[in-house]
Amino acid sequence: MNNYFEEAIKLAKNGIKNKEGGPFGAVVVDNKGRIVGYGNNQVLKNNDPTAHAEVMAIRDACRTLNTYDLTGCKIYTTSEPCPMCLGAIIWSNIKEVYYSTNTKDVDEIGFRDEDIYDYLEGKNNKIIKLEKIENDKCEKLLDSYKNTIY
Q1: Do residues 36 and 73 make contact, with C-beta atoms less than 8 angstroms apart?
Q2: CB 26: neighbour CB atoms within 10 A?
Q3: Most buried residue among 24, 38, 50, 51 by CB atoms closer than 10 A?
Q4: What is the residue-wise DSSP string for 96-122?
Q5: pLDDT in tens, the chain (150 residues)
Q6: What are phi and psi of 6, to 5 degrees?
Q7: Is the CB of residue 39 less than 8 Å from the CB of residue 26?
Q8: Does the active-site annotation cover 54?
């Protein structure tokens, strides 16, 4: 298990050195213990706020395995996943996440994971306005999709 963290740390350090993004690295490991996805934070490099280490590792694993379903895989990441990354992990069907530093640790160096978690818990409604607007055409999109897959 430690070699997975060592690889994630190496990815994070390389990303810092190359000014690609924050101090985060992640690897996806398949059920045979092989690393199938590598990622470091590349927000600055790609001008992409979604280019977090876990997302990049998931994208790489999906390319490597030629699937969107990473059932049976695990992810090792240098820090507790932010809400976006946690969502990506859940959507990819990864059921095991191993991390070291937590959201309080990254808040201390200027990241805002705690603010987003507070919003999701209903404690911070100032972070974004989220409003549902009824639209029949949008509902019909769902129906048309449902009819194509069932």
Answers
A1: yes
A2: 34
A3: 24
A4: EEEEEE-HHHHHTTT--HHHHHHHHTT
A5: 579 999 999 999 999 999 999 999 999 999 999 999 999 999 999 999 999 999 999 999 999 999 999 999 999 999 999 999 999 999 999 999 999 999 999 999 999 888 888 888 989 888 888 889 999 999 999 989 988 876
A6: -60, -40
A7: yes
A8: yes
Give, rounded to a whole angstrom, the gap between the first and last alpha carbons of the chain.
41
Q: How many residues does the structure list for the chain?
A: 150
Task: Report the predicted TM-score, pTM, of the whole model to 2 decimal places.
Answer: 0.91
- List, in sequence order, every beta strand (DSSP E) within 56-107: 74-79, 96-101
Cα 53 from Cα 3, distance rounded (Å): 17
Q: Which of 6, 54, 114, 121 is catalytic?
A: 54
Q: What is the spatial distance between Cα 100 and Cα 93, in angstroms, rounded to a whole number?
A: 21
Alpha carbon distances (Å) from 106 to 43, 48, 146: 16, 19, 41
For residue 83 the two structure tokens come to 């809400």
What lies within 8 Å, CB to CB, of 31 at 6+ separation is: 72, 73
**Residue 80 has which token pair?**
């507790």
Bridge partner residues of 25 (DSSP): 40
